[in-house]
UniProtKB/TrEMBL annotation:
It comes from Actinomyces slackii. InterPro entries: Gfo/Idh/MocA-like_OxRdtase_N, Gfo/Idh/MocA_Oxidoreductases, GFO_IDH_MocA-like_dom, NAD(P)-bd_dom_sf. The keyword Cytoplasm does not apply. Its EC number is 1.-.-.-. Residues 20-134 form the Gfo/Idh/MocA-like oxidoreductase N-terminal domain. Keywords: Oxidoreductase. It holds the Pfam family GFO_IDH_MocA. It comes from the Bacteria. GO terms for molecular function: nucleotide binding; oxidoreductase activity. This is Uncharacterized oxidoreductase ydgJ.
Length: 344
């Protein structure tokens, strides 16, 4: 039996001197931003767009709006961005893999773990770059946080707490708050802390009349002993996006809405106030808000994908990582449904 030849990185095919021919499928709330960013990314040309529902945001420009992944592939693509609803991720991604197109799929990788594994295997078996769009990893606050943790600025890490709250977004129709929002926190927590999840316990609620959950609180432990807590909902009348990392030297607070990173150091000044001095714990020390370079996370995410396709660097979120995150997501939902802690 003959085998399908393994596609090579573009660098190996002698095309590194021309922009990547990129296709985009899904022109909704996220797709319109991807169209803008791809057009603005050096080394990428948006040559085809597709959405069976049309172009309600008017992002196609001079390009015809195609109706399927198959039509998109016929345009002759080097790479593609998939921004369709989650339920369609598997079918679209598999079609692109079969055609030998390097692809980034918006998070989560697929509607369930089994589908995610099929997608990841399809790209890996063909030697293609398969990426998942966890854009929070490109947020300047989280990148600065990860750099400082890697440097040992916090010492031993004890806990990661995330709070991702706000009103219901009209763009969501096919998944609940766990697969849409909590998936970000699960991915970034394992990435920031440098270890996968060992166990998870969760509770969800349905408070707004929708079929899917709109509130989740999840607690767990990573394999390196770090304790985690996630509070995520679509019920809060203000928007909050915080990641708090507590460790032996203090705490980092990353605000991914503003891109700011603040460090709260443990105090080292001796106190002459007996009631305070006798307390066996930490005290408030210096507070530093770092001045960090701020770039649009989506633009950096596309650059990482471009460089991976070129064979230059591998800073993208891999599909294997996307599957691992989806395994935790499904464990969160199973834990809430069965009222038990789930080992991973």
């Amino acid at each position: 039996m003959s085998q399908t030849p393994t596609p090579q990185r573009l660098q190996d095919k002698g095309t590194a001197d021309r922009p990547l021919r990129v296709g985009l499928i899904g022109l909704g709330s996220m797709g319109r931003h991807h169209a803008r960013v791809i057009r603005g990314t050096e080394g990428m040309d948006l040559v085809a767009v597709a959405d069976p529902g049309g172009d309600r945001f008017g992002v196609a420009g001079d390009l015809p709006v195609l109706s399927s992944a198959e039509e998109l592939i016929e345009a002759g693509l080097d790479a593609a961005m998939v921004a369709v609803p989650t339920v369609y991720h598997e079918d679209v991604a598999l079609a692109l893999a079969e055609a030998g197109v390097h692809t980034m799929v918006e998070k989560p990788i697929a509607h369930d773990v089994a589908a995610g594994r099929r997608v990841a295997e399809a790209f890996e078996s063909r030697g293609l770059v398969g990426a998942v769009g966890y854009v929070e990893r490109c947020n300047p606050a989280l990148r600065a946080l990860r750099e400082r943790l890697d440097r040992g600025d916090l010492g031993q890490v004890y806990q990661v707490i995330t709070r991702r709250q706000g009103p219901f977004p009209a763009r969501i129709s096919d998944v609940g708050v766990v697969k849409d929002l909590a998936t970000h926190d699960i991915d970034l927590t394992a990435w920031v802390a440098g270890a996968p999840y060992a166990s998870i316990s969760a509770q969800v609620a349905h408070r707004s009349g929708r079929q899917t959950e709109d509130l989740v609180v999840a607690n767990g432990r990573l394999t390196n002993g770090v304790i985690v807590c996630h509070e995520v909902n679509w019920l809060t009348p203000f928007k909050e996006r915080l990641t708090i990392v507590l460790g032996e030297k203090g705490a980092f607070v990353a605000d991914t809405l503003t891109g700011d990173l603040t460090f709260h150091a443990n105090g080292t000044v001796a106190s002459s106030w007996d009631q305070v001095a006798n307390f066996r714990g930490v005290s408030e020390g210096d507070v530093i808000r770092y001045a960090i370079a701020k770039r649009e996370p989506l633009a950096l995410e596309q650059e990482h994908f471009r460089d991976a396709v070129r064979g230059l660097e591998a800073k993208h979120v891999t599909m294997a990582e996307g599957v691992a995150t989806l395994e935790v997501v499904e464990a969160v939902l199973a834990s809430a449904a069965e009222n038990r802690t789930i080992a991973l």
